[in-house]
């Protein structure tokens, strides 16, 4: 054992010495150019990895924009809306994924929309923008979301009757996986019912691969580990094998469906899902299709599940807000008469009713402000530049804006920045009022702004309207202070157990 510990300790000491030398050199360099203050080193980030966003928020409260010293390139982290606007919009062409982000994410996400720039990005953006604007997708996804919300509702009814706790984190991860697989690929994943073992295995491996990939951000030895196939990289490889087997199987099934479909024009199978259209219109390379699938799963599953879980958590912590949301739903749906079950409730929720739920919309936005699904977003600088605050950024430097920290900055949101207050999103008439995307950065901004924003809000509104309209939620452990998993998305770590009660006045069975 000690034989291995000595070289490990020596390597650690060497790394520390190199890091401190770099810090020293940075500090004594002639200060002709203006640089952001140093917040720490990547080693500090590694040490604080489990609470990374808390750690970065603390630094941001002190510095607004700061550098973290890394042996390979400059790293700048910002919460300044002026810098965010500059890198995401004003000088968009100078900041992108670059080879650094691409190499971090490539094994997991391949050449999908989240990892590429230039022509490859434009092509996928064009295709995806078209898909997201179609009425077919809107109608098809609406039906799917409602069906899945009813299924979750039935599980809650059961739990309410038997007084059992429910792990909503697990439930929402399964529900959103089912939704995106149905809408994007026309596949019944059936994670909710658990009937599809392969689907469950895929989801687990996907989540682990996501976390292990994010770990590369602070693990400067990941390339060596990958080369030697050891530690976290060996685990990642194993998980990606499970993921790939499942995804390539979907591609084979889809191809067969499309071929059968084209033979028989009366069989209009699955024409609504995004993948079928992609496979009919785009190149047939299975690796390319695999990358498209992986990027859609990442975009469509975790952010919504995470937001829904944080929403219920915040509503349990703020029962007064939970009551106001329920009142908003009640008034917007004008629900009266006997409601026999969740499906009965859902049938009375019209599209116009959903539009009227302004307080619910505000509560969702407030949840996303404090728990943005993507808490930290990285860009690479393509050529030397000067940021709006006069500080220099060099070609190859990484610059990250931090939606999680930004949501907690007093200089952006006022002294009550840390408070959960949906009212901040409402005007004098109680109507939802959006914020500047450079201040509320959860969906990014500029030419690469999130394409699924409306899609996401619709799914979250349908789910929350049906679930919060029918049930009251209470934490099983009122002192619960949940942790997050430091993955690409800010997922709650472990179960979030709640008690569910049928809302009074409704006779949900
Ligand atoms: C609460 C839910 C969501 C949040 C907070 C969110 C946030 C974001 C953010 C921050 C980005 C920029 C990522 C980057 O730098 O590459 C992004 C991009 C994107 N999002 Fe979302 N997203 C959400 C849901 C969705 C959903 C449900 C979909 C689709 C099913 C989706 C599709 C996309 C796509 C395709 C992009 C890539 C845009 C591009 O690079 O041109 N998002 N999203």
UniProtKB/TrEMBL annotation:
CDD domains per record: CYP86A
Cofactor: heme
Residues spanning the membrane: 6-26
SUPFAM superfamilies: Cytochrome P450 (SSF48264)
This protein's UniProt keywords: Heme, Iron, Membrane, Metal-binding, Oxidoreductase, Transmembrane, Transmembrane helix
Alphabetized Pfam families for the sequence: p450 (PF00067)
InterPro entries: Cyt_P450 (IPR001128), Cyt_P450_E_grp-I (IPR002401), Cyt_P450_sf (IPR036396)
Source species, domain of life: Eukaryota
Binding site for heme: 450
Molecular-function annotations in GO: heme binding; iron ion binding; monooxygenase activity; oxidoreductase activity, acting on paired donors, with incorporation or reduction of molecular oxygen
Family from the record: Belongs to the cytochrome P450 family.
Identification of the protein by name: Cytochrome P450
Organism the protein comes from: Tagetes erecta (African marigold)
